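Researcher: Good morning. I'm working through a list of sequences from a screen, and I'd like to move beyond sequence-only analysis. For each chain I'm collecting a predicted structure so we can compare shapes side by side. This is the next one on the list. No need for commentary yet; just the structure.
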Amino acid sequence: MNVHSRKIIHVDMDAFYASVEQRDNPELRGKPVAVGGSRERGVVAAASYEARKFGVRSAMPSVTAKRQCPDLIFVKPRFEVYKTVSQQIRDIFAEHTPIIEPLSLDEAYLDVTANLQGIPLARDIALAIRAKIKEVTGLNASAGISYNKFLAKLASDHRKPNGQYVITPAMGPAFVESLPVGKFHGIGPATSAKMNSLGLHTGLDMRNQTLEFMQANFGKAGAYYYWISRGVDDREVRANRTRKSVGAENTFANDLTEFEAMAAELRPLIDKVWRHCEDKGSRGRTVTLKVKFNDFEIVTRSQSLSNSVGSSSELERVARGLLERLMPAQKAIRLLGISLSALEAEAVSTGPQMSLKL
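Model: Good morning. Structure tokens for this chain:
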């Protein structure tokens, strides 16, 4: 099949956790809400659009969020509720296609090239899905429609919140041209900074490079960047997609040398990894610490446990232990990362629906 004839929708719920809380508690509507812990070392899991106007965003330390938005209301996460709503949304997707690739509780790719209801236009399928989600859950969803996954995800960002956007094959390459490299999904702050240092600021800058140049500077990912800068992404929407590992990392504004400062920086990363495990009902046995020094040397340290990590505090204990092994640091550290691998479905999960959560 010609990849340009594919019809792919990326559906992304708008401020999902926060919107569920505002739906269920009318007193929170129209107010800045953060789902997460307000304690000193807490982290924001999700922020309402009212909170985002103040710069509050997910993975931000709660103390920073409160400083930026003094009226911020913290709400404790209710993952069981989010999972239930997520399953309702997943069931709506399944009315249109069996080819569903969940990315998290609140977003997924759908391949609707051959859809179950015989609706000719993908944009009309997206409209129907969003209307049904609103009817069943009371929540807003945004959607992006295109001929590949990369562009569909870009498109869903384009009309947020509560909108949708189509990027046609004729529009694809031009749409990518003017996009800053930092807006490309899969290009984080560190890679974006490296690209900028090489004179690559936009999709067009990337497109002007050879495949050899991109691979020499960015390794295996270089080929992916080379093709998406041309609007080309042949990845299929994979139903029942399973992740082998989940991780998070952060590059610091200032290099660190003290153990406690590094341990404090690990905490939001551990929260983020554990939140994903909670979202997906998965657990892992192998903890890996990634360290990048100020001269860009990277080292990793791993520990495999006999049983799966059972809590965020256990994950933190193992991570701190791995970090202690590197102390005293020979050089200042500019980045820390933590990942959990050997993932498997949680033993107490309720059958196959957990692996299909959206």
